[in-house]
Design goal:
With 212 residues, the chain is of the alpha/beta class. It has one domain (3-205): Metallo-beta-lactamase, Chain A (4-Layer Sandwich). The protein is 18% helix and 29% strand. It is built from 4 helices and 13 strands. It has helices at residues 35-45, 65-72, 169-180, 199-205, and strands spanning 3-9, 14-20, 25-29, 48-53, 76-79, 110-112, 116-120, 123-129, 138-142, 147-151, 154-155, 158-159, 188-191. The strands form 3 sheets. Strands 1-2-3-4-5-6 form a 6-stranded mixed beta sheet, with helices on one face. Strands 7-8-9-10-13 form a 5-stranded mixed beta sheet. Strands 11-12 form a two-stranded antiparallel ribbon. Strand 7 and strand 8 form a beta hairpin. Helix 1 runs parallel beside helix 2 (65-72). The chain is globular, with a radius of gyration of 16 Å. The termini are far apart. The mean pLDDT is 96. Its cofactor is Zn(2+). It comes from Sporosarcina limicola. Residues 13-193 form the Metallo-beta-lactamase domain. Keywords: Hydrolase, Metal-binding, Zinc.
């Protein structure tokens, strides 16, 4: 049984997730900011981080990557389409918004180049490519635990924006329809911002998906 902890971080309140097993090992998904706070949480909970997974590399999802990577000596996983984004403030969008954190770090340790099952430490899950919000968006599906971490692809009653570089509305809607709404209706979808939802809820009442 996995325990999931959610931490909204930074001025945009990006959801960072800790996925913890019964032995205290954990995966960290999208540490967007507030690295010191996250390190304190990990120590207090006596967790052992094994990796950082990035659903995509927009600045509000990656701001604390290097702080956690260096403190716990763990690898970072990112889709190969965004291999340059962690180190390029123009690509990750942080150069676009004066007043918000300027993010420029080191490149990922491992690039995700294929869909399918992944195994990191004791964790087994599926990577599904869900481009549209960004060209390298990935959703991480934990089938046995009936949960999915989808970044900014799908939100409760909304969908990801597509007006940033590399965004594509038709591609986003196809990703949602083919890769996320095909999950079992009761799967818990954990988005990059805001509360969780399910495929059943979004198929029934998401206004952006009506008629697709």
């Amino acid at each position: 049984m996995l325990k999931i902890r959610t931490y909204p971080l930074g001025p945009i309140q990006t959801n960072c997730y800790f996925i913890q097993d019964e032995s205290g090992n954990c995966l960290i998904i999208d540490p967007g900011e507030e690295g010191t706070r996250l390190i304190r949480k990990i120590k207090k909970l006596e967790l052992t981080p094994v990796a950082i997974l990035l659903t995509h590399a927009h600045f509000d999802h990656i701001g604390a990557v290097d702080a956690l990577r260096d403190r716990f000596d763990i690898p970072v996983y990112l889709h190969s389409e965004e291999r340059e984004w962690l180190s390029d403030a123009v690509l990750n969008g942080s150069a676009r918004y004066p007043g918000l954190p300027y993010v420029q770090g080191r490149k990922a340790d491992h690039l995700i180049t294929e869909e399918g099952m992944m195994e990191i430490g004791p964790f087994k899950f599926e990577a599904r490519f869900t481009p549209g919000h960004s060209p390298g968006s990935v959703s991480f599906i934990f089938e046995l635990e009936r949960c999915a971490f989808v970044g900014d692809t799908l939100f409760q009653q909304s969908i990801g924006r597509t007006d940033l570089p590399g965004g594509n509305t038709r591609e986003l809607l196809t990703s949602i329809h083919d890769k996320l709404l095909t999950l079992d209706d009761g799967v818990i979808i954990y988005p990059g911002h805001g509360p969780s939802t399910t495929p059943a809820i979004e198929k029934d009442s998401n206004p952006f998906l009506n008629g697709f």
